Description:
Distance between the termini: 27 Å
Strand content: over 45%
Helix content: under 10%
Shape: globular
Number of helices: 0
Radius of gyration: 17 Å
Structural class: mainly beta
Amino acid sequence: SSGINAEYGDCIINTNTDHNGWIWTIDQEDCQSSNIASGSWDSYIHFYDIGRGSLEKTCDISVHSAILCTRYEKNLLLYGTYSKIVFGYDTRSKTTAFKLKNHTKPVLSVAASEEYIWSSGEDNALVCYDRRMNKLLKRIRMERISSSIRFLEPYLWVAGYDGNIKCFNKDMKIMKKIETGHTQPIMDMCHNMGATVTACKDGVVKIFSPNTSPVLWNSFTLDNSASCVDYRKGIIMAGCCDSSVVFWKNINVD
């Protein structure tokens, strides 16, 4: 199992999934939903409901390529694959709504707003796609691989293999650089109005205030490194390299 020192918070779920490989992504649906999606190297996406305090699997889909990232909008799951494609999956009709191929290597992260879909890949590209005009809007090449991207108005937050975070505006210009203190690549980052959470390759998870001059609220180290993290309403979720998922609440941020 993936342990955490009890002084940091209460572990409310710590369970192995039936994924047969690293869990690379975990995300909670927008709109105050209790729905969770996880994606794995085993090419499966699993859907869960955590409304009753446990991880209850509702269904899964096989997509024939390793799942490296997700963004769970209301009734629509965006996911990026090892096969270099970003898919949009309609969770109501259970059909593929669209697919975007804007990368030459595997897609590592995806973010979205009503207007745009951003993605980053092992090709060092950071891409902006216009949803309304249905076309590629901009592509820039990063010096280092961008492992995790998140959008929260007005910035696109980009975490990378250099262990730090860059904030871009909608014109894809860097507005702010943030040093996290991580000494190894950031595997995943969650950024929303509650907190900014980073998970590093060395197993260190850090919780910061959610602004462009962040204060470190807390940090801890997992027994098994977290390959993905999410944070909602005081609960941190992590997917780990041993196919387990762990949830904590009451994290001390004083």
